[in-house]
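Sorry to interrupt, but I need a hand with the structure work. Could you add the entry underneath, on a fresh line?
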Amino acid sequence: LLKTGAGIKKININTASVDLLKSHPYLKWNLANALVQYRQQHGPFKTVEDLQQVAVITSAVYHKVAPYLTVE
Protein backbone atom coordinates (compact mmCIF):
# COMPACT_ATOMS: atom_id res chain seq x y z
CA LEU A 1 0.00 0.00 0.00
CA LEU A 2 1.22 3.46 -0.87
CA LYS A 3 0.57 6.40 1.43
CA THR A 4 -0.28 9.72 -0.12
CA GLY A 5 0.44 13.09 1.43
CA ALA A 6 -3.07 13.08 2.88
CA GLY A 7 -2.35 9.82 4.67
CA ILE A 8 -4.63 7.79 2.41
CA LYS A 9 -3.38 4.28 1.79
CA LYS A 10 -3.63 3.54 -1.93
CA ILE A 11 -4.14 0.00 -3.18
CA ASN A 12 -2.36 -1.04 -6.36
CA ILE A 13 -5.10 -2.57 -8.51
CA ASN A 14 -2.50 -4.35 -10.65
CA THR A 15 -0.94 -6.33 -7.81
CA ALA A 16 -3.61 -6.53 -5.11
CA SER A 17 -5.30 -9.83 -4.29
CA VAL A 18 -9.06 -10.22 -3.98
CA ASP A 19 -8.59 -10.32 -0.18
CA LEU A 20 -6.65 -7.04 -0.12
CA LEU A 21 -9.15 -5.33 -2.42
CA LYS A 22 -12.16 -6.49 -0.44
CA SER A 23 -10.56 -5.17 2.74
CA HIS A 24 -11.43 -1.69 1.42
CA PRO A 25 -14.80 -0.49 2.79
CA TYR A 26 -16.09 0.45 -0.68
CA LEU A 27 -15.13 -2.83 -2.37
CA LYS A 28 -17.19 -5.91 -1.61
CA TRP A 29 -16.00 -9.39 -2.60
CA ASN A 30 -17.91 -9.40 -5.91
CA LEU A 31 -16.28 -6.12 -7.01
CA ALA A 32 -12.82 -7.17 -5.82
CA ASN A 33 -13.16 -10.50 -7.62
CA ALA A 34 -14.37 -8.78 -10.81
CA LEU A 35 -11.31 -6.50 -10.80
CA VAL A 36 -8.91 -9.42 -10.41
CA GLN A 37 -10.73 -11.46 -13.09
CA TYR A 38 -10.69 -8.51 -15.49
CA ARG A 39 -6.97 -7.98 -14.84
CA GLN A 40 -6.24 -11.66 -15.52
CA GLN A 41 -8.19 -11.56 -18.79
CA HIS A 42 -7.07 -8.17 -20.12
CA GLY A 43 -3.69 -7.57 -18.49
CA PRO A 44 -2.72 -4.80 -16.08
CA PHE A 45 -4.75 -1.64 -15.76
CA LYS A 46 -2.95 1.28 -17.42
CA THR A 47 -4.81 3.92 -15.42
CA VAL A 48 -7.27 3.96 -12.53
CA GLU A 49 -9.82 5.25 -15.07
CA ASP A 50 -9.64 1.83 -16.77
CA LEU A 51 -11.74 0.51 -13.87
CA GLN A 52 -14.71 1.99 -15.67
CA GLN A 53 -14.31 -0.77 -18.30
CA VAL A 54 -15.26 -3.38 -15.69
CA ALA A 55 -19.00 -4.06 -16.04
CA VAL A 56 -19.80 -4.21 -12.29
CA ILE A 57 -18.06 -0.91 -11.48
CA THR A 58 -20.78 1.72 -11.62
CA SER A 59 -19.99 5.40 -11.99
CA ALA A 60 -20.95 5.95 -8.34
CA VAL A 61 -18.64 3.18 -7.10
CA TYR A 62 -15.82 4.38 -9.34
CA HIS A 63 -15.99 7.95 -8.04
CA LYS A 64 -16.05 6.77 -4.42
CA VAL A 65 -13.16 4.33 -4.68
CA ALA A 66 -10.84 5.87 -7.31
CA PRO A 67 -8.97 8.16 -4.86
CA TYR A 68 -7.86 5.08 -2.90
CA LEU A 69 -6.44 3.17 -5.86
CA THR A 70 -3.29 3.35 -7.95
CA VAL A 71 -1.73 1.44 -10.85
CA GLU A 72 1.87 2.01 -9.71
About this structure: Residues 29-42 form the longest helix (14 residues).
